[in-house]
Design brief:
globular, 4 helices, single chain, 79% helix, mainly alpha, Helix Hairpins
Length: 100
């Protein structure tokens, strides 16, 4: 499965369309979901620092949840995840080039 195929699936589950302006409530739900799942993922890093406990399977599971919300939000923005990734790479490469 490609990232764009996954995003199409996630958008269907999340009831998001790439057409027109997204519903504000749906967009808010997805944004809050992304923030919440990101917090859960970084909580695993905090526990590693605090307790020395690393649970890579649980961490990866949370990353999967982050990807779900991110992919649905890409569709809501009218972009495929692959477009977002290409733009992100170009932006980061531009920053790296500027720091040399």
């Amino acid at each position: 499965m490609t990232v764009d195929e996954y995003a199409a699936w996630a958008a269907g589950v999340a009831r998001v369309s790439a057409e027109g302006q997204p519903d504000r409530e749906r967009l808010s739900y997805l944004g809050l979901g992304l923030a919440g799942e990101t917090g859960e993922a970084v909580g695993h890093i905090k526990k590693l620092l605090r307790d020395g406990v690393w649970r890579p399977d649980a961490f990866a599971e949370e990353l999967g949840d982050v990807v779900y919300y991110w992919a649905a939000l890409c569709v809501a923005a009218g972009r495929s995840p692959s477009e977002v990734l290409v733009a992100s790479k170009a932006k980061i490469e531009g920053r790296i080039a500027g720091n040399k």
